[in-house]
From TrEMBL:
Coiled-coil residue spans: none
Protein name per the record: Lrp/AsnC family transcriptional regulator
Family annotation (Pfam families): AsnC_trans_reg, HTH_24
Species this protein is from: Aequitasia blattaphilus
Top-level taxon: Bacteria
UniProt keyword list: DNA-binding, Transcription, Transcription regulation
């Protein structure tokens, strides 16, 4: 991957449906070269897919929460992961270090709906404890980050000052 691939990714990150002809104008390459580069990134797994970003409240999901989950024993992990992956309101799950084993991001219709989901989570085999955090407002919500050489240099300059 070179600087142009990163430029292409930045454009696609903003709009996954951007036309290759528009991308080619921004990166100063032919349309066929842009298409070829995108295909290579898809085949190598750098680009895993394309999706639609949905405004959750517009779809009726007015509540967003983060639930931390601790398991009694690692033997429960496979069943827990399988269950979590099947639940449509659990939109992210992170395995982590620290006091809790997993962090779940959940969107749902209401506090009552959250209570049902929370009860469902606690009913899963091997759940030792949970801790729930209500999201009051989303300040930043991006799905990927690209390495930013300029940011790294700027941060280093700030540290020197």
């Amino acid at each position: 991957m070179d600087k142009i691939d990163y430029q292409i990714l930045e454009i696609l990150k903003k709009n996954g449906r951007e036309r290759a002809s528009e991308i080619s104008k921004e990166v100063h390459l032919t349309v066929s070269t842009v298409i070829e580069r995108i295909k290579k990134m898809e085949q190598s797994g750098v680009i895993k897919g394309y999706t639609v970003l949905i405004d959750e409240p517009c779809m009726g999901n007015d509540v967003t929460v983060i639930i931390e989950v601790s398991l009694e024993h690692p033997k429960y992990e496979d069943a827990f992961i399988e269950s979590i992956n099947e639940h449509p309101n659990i939109i992210a799950c992170y395995y982590q270090t620290g006091e809790f084993d997993y962090t779940l991001k959940i969107t749902c219709r209401s506090s009552q709906h959250l209570e049902e989901i929370h009860r469902w989570i606690k009913d899963q085999p091997g759940i030792r404890k949970t801790r729930t955090h209500y999201v009051l407002r989303t300040v930043k919500n991006i799905y990927t980050s690209l390495p930013k050489e300029d940011w790294d240099k700027k941060s280093a300059r700030k540290k020197k000052d």
